[in-house]
Amino acid sequence: MTPRTRELFGLIPASLLVTAGFAAVFVQEQDVVSTISLTYGAVFLGLCFAAHLVIRWRLPHADPYVLPLVAVLASFGLVMIYRLDDRFAREQAQWFVIGLAAFIATIVLVRDYRALERYRYVIAASSLGLLLLPRIPGIGSQTNGAYLGVDVGPVSFQPAEFAKIGIIIFLASYLRDTRQLLVATKKWGITIPPLRHLGPLLAVWGLAMILLVFIRDLGSSLMFFGGFLAMLYVATNRLIFPVVGFGLFAAGVGFFASTVGHVQSRIDAWHHPFNDALYGAQGGSYQLAQSLFAQADGGVFGRGFGKALVGSGDAVVVPAAKTDLIYSVIVNELGLVGACGLLLVYLLLVQRGFRIAVLARDSFSKLLAAGLATVIGLQVFVIVGGVTKAIPLTGVTLPFVSYGGSSIVANFVIVALLLLISDRARREAGA
Amino acid sequence: MNAPLTRTFGVLMLLFGVLVFFTARWTVIDRSKLQDNPKNRRALLEQQRVARGAIYAADGAVLARSSKRADGTYTRAYPRAGLFAQTVGYDYLIPGFAGLERFYNGPLTGRKSGLAATLRKLQGHGNEGDDLRTSLDPAAQEIATRMLGTRAGAVVALDPSTGRIRVMASTPGYNPNDLASAKATKALNRASGAPLLNRTTVGLYPPGSTMKVVAAIAAIDSGRYEPTSVVSGRSPVTISGTPLANHGGTDYGNIDLTTALTQSVNTVWAQVAESLGKPTMRRYMDRLGFGRPIDVDLPADERLASGPYCDKGGTRTLVEPTSDCVDIGRTAIGQAKLLATPLQMAQVAASVANGGLLMTPVIATRALDAEGRTTLDNEPRVLSRVMSQASAAKVTAMMQKVVQEGTGTAAALQGIDVAGKTGTAEIDIARNIAQPWFIAFAPANRPRVAIAVTLEHIVGGFGGTDAAPIAKAVMESLLQ
Q: Which of A168, A174, B47, B124 is most buried, taking the most CB atoms under 10 A from its CB?
């Protein structure tokens, strides 16, 4: 069986999941098994089939499991959001189509992704600009104390979602060039990179700190810097880099946490979610506490699709249910079992990313694939860790599942890049 | 570069392991702790989506019912307003629930297990609760509440042969419908006189001379005394090292126990209890239900234990009647450290009334589902055999004398024999403040009602004049 045929068969379970999911929600809400769930399933299968055809045409050797895994996640997200609010599900479906278009456009337009290296400084600079955009008065917007959104007229988007791709492309290219130099000098048995090359690394650390101060978001800062450390380690194979880097990051967070009020309140809420003062405070621990209550309500097997208490309007029980807390609602309805299944799908997707990195022939491809895969994994860790009180809660999206146009489109571009790398690697390996 | 790639993926796997662990922590390990967290209102919110069953009085009057609101949730209404406020309780979002609403929350919300219930759920019937039927009597309750009036107090009446509670009145009261608003709830919580408290089960008062019935039960049933046994009724006598006087310092000379109960002679019953000894007194108090939270179908924090409360390290602590700190002579006349709830004292009367067999008091009789099938049946249950039938007959005769010619004549009913005992516990001798009591049952030969009445802080109060008339009126209504 060719990889593409395998991919095609892989899409069938994802479409069945959409069909079954919508059917379950219909039964729960209207007591009817509507044929419209079949329609939704068919439309979804059709869209995935279109993406499949483009891959078949342009990237015949690419990894066959990535698209089905993404389809499973996206269908999961669509059903969950439909169950929460059908109006938003229609919008999410539109974003899914736009995301697929971006996916196809990336595959068709970026004929050779290694050409991206030539524009690395442009990409880096524009990514930085994107990151700081939300702080520009007039178009920037603040949510729960963090500056993550941009509103230009009717369009609002989260530039950080796109900036992460640009920064990873830049880092992959930069580390490809300097990886030999970084490990060239050894003193007293430990690797000390020459100052000239250490500078840019410290600059990345500084960038993470600036993110923390300007965007006031611990989650995206952790995601970016974690991705960077992973790439640095892959590039140099020296454990000292990520260890020192993480130490620096922790020190920086410790310092800024006490000076940037918003970050500190997030950390307080994390430590004491049931503290009376924090629970009642604006932007306090209410959200986290409700997340934990929702998960406790779910138990091992969950309450079933459409049965969790979410509330709406004035009587909202789970705040930000379709974005930040969507994982909590999933645990509430599908239990620990369903949550483990979802996490497993993410882990498989990340694993495919690393598999692509392993197969890739050149350093840039390896670093790029590893960076992209790591960022997907870390993003899941940041948001799921946040709502399960493993780390302080910050508002990043659950890739492909949370409601949010920027997130869907950006993640589809990441997947397209992974498939481009994969196709090249397997073609060369096969040839 | 492939080795660090594998290791990096390993780190990510570890991180995902952390996520699984934390999810398991909230869904399994700490689950019940989170569900019991007072900030967790999910259970209450979900209940609002269920059509709770109604609560009915014995005559079929609706005491509580649910009505659907525009948004699909249900709200609770109490058509009889405050009539059974502390007994029926309430169920609202802000204050939560109390009383029968809380104790029978399972049946009222239709939470059932078993195959039949599961099948019904599959058919889409899961959203309605069972109705609750009680033995409460609105007419008698109304009389009790009206006669207590503006005074703080409690009346509890039950059927001694079944333990079924007919009247459970506690004043001051409140209108449970008010609790739908958060503001009114706050005001009620701070209101003077603690209107939310069910005084029949959490009001702890010195029972005064009504406790002499317990001493009489112990004296007769232990075989040590007969109603005709003669004891010295001089005043004062030394009890536990300090002199004890009779009411008004009256010296009765040598009198029998029937007379001592009829005239409520303190010195006689204190001496009897001392001669019986603490272990004997304890045995009978235990059988009557003293020493543990009163056994009735109300939530645990709405039931208190009657018995001697000694000061231990600054806090009032329930102790055994055999403890060193207990003055058993004064315990027998309902003074010193003894505190009792009105329902406990009604149980004392009920044990004599039912030939020595004490039944478990119970408010709800049955729960019925939407199709009228009984889903819960509170059959009468025996709590304990307190005394022999013969002893009960003897004590009944003694208590009848109290109403015929003693301190309790105000409770006498036309054409019906009443057996009873007055009590007047001294609260503040200097300011002449007392806690009047009356416990009784009727008809004496075939009792259908046992009752306890008490009033708080009555200036110049006396059981025979303040409490007995209330008992009379309530019993009259119940015996019609």
A: A168
Q: How far apart are CA A108 and CA B328, in angstroms?
A: 98
Residue in the block written with tokens 């006087």 = B245
Lowest-pLDDT range of A147-151, A359-363, B276-280, B417-421:
A147-151
The residues, ordered by sequence, that sit 6+ positions from B313 with a Cβ below 8 Å of its Cβ are none
Of A298, A46, A219, A343, residue with least CA distance to B21: A343
Contact at 8 Å (CB) between B309 and B321? no
* Residue B93: closest C-alpha in chain A: A315
DSSP summary character for residue B336: T
* Token pair 């194979």: residue: A237
As a whole number of angstroms, the distance between CA B64 and CA B407 comes to 40
Q: For residue range B249-268, list pLDDT tens digits in order.
A: 888 889 999 999 999 999 99
Give the minimum alpha-carbon distance from B110 to chain A in angstroms, rounded to a whole number: 17
* Inter-chain CB proximity B5 and A336 less than 8 Å: no
**Chain A residue at shortest CA distance from B122:** A31
Read off the amino acid at residue B397.
A
Does residue A393 sit in helix, strand or coil? coil
Residue A116 clears pLDDT 90, i.e. is over it: no
Q: Which among A230, A297, A331 is the nearest to B42, CB-wise?
A: A297
Contact call for A388 and B13, based on CB within 8 A: no
For residue B38, give the 3-state DSSP assignment.
coil
Beta strands B374-377; B315-318: pairing state? unpaired
Secondary structure (3-state) at B362:
strand
Q: For residue A237, give the nearest of B3, B23, B27 by CB distance.
A: B3
**List of residues 6+ apart from B245 with CB closer than 8 A:** B235, B236, B266, B267
What residues in B contact A345, CB-CB < 8 Å? Answer: none
Under an 8 A CB cutoff, do B15 and A381 touch? yes
Q: Could you give the C-alpha distances from A215 to A112, A254, A283, A387, B397, in angstroms and in order?
A: 33, 16, 16, 20, 87
**A129, A207 contact by CB (below 8 A):** no
| B18 Cα to chain A: minimum distance (Å) | 8
**Chain-chain contact of B6 with A358 (C-beta, under 8 angstroms):** yes
| Most confident option among A188-192, B402-406, B451-455 | B451-455
Partners of residue B27 in chain A, C-beta under 8 Å: 295-296, 298-300, 331, 335-336, 339
Tell whether B70 lies on the interface with A, counting CB pairs under 8 A: no
Residue B113: which pLDDT band, with cuts at 50, 70 and 90? low
Residue that the structure tokens 């009897």 belong to? B272
Contact at 8 Å (CB) between A96 and A78? yes
**Distance, in angstroms, between A430 CA and closest chain B CA?**
19
Q: Across residues B86-101, what is the average pLDDT?
A: 88
Closest A-chain CA to B40: A293
| DSSP H helix total and E strand total for chain A | 15, 5
Q: Residue B184 contacts by C-beta under 8 Å, 6 or more apart in sequence? A: B178
Cα separation, B319 vs B68, in Å, equals: 49
Does B385 lie at the interface with A, CB-CB under 8 angstroms? no
Inter-chain residue contact B27 with A381, CB threshold 8 Å: no
Name chain B contacts of A230, Cβ cutoff 8 Å.
Answer: 8, 11
- Give Cβ neighbours of residue B51 (< 8 Å, ≥ 6 apart): B66, B68, B74, B127, B128, B129
Tokens of A346: 């993410």
The kind and range of the H/E element at A407 are: helix A405-430
User: What would the mean pLDDT of A321-337 be, rounded to a whole number?
Assistant: 88
Residue A190: strand pairing partners: A187
pTM value? 0.66
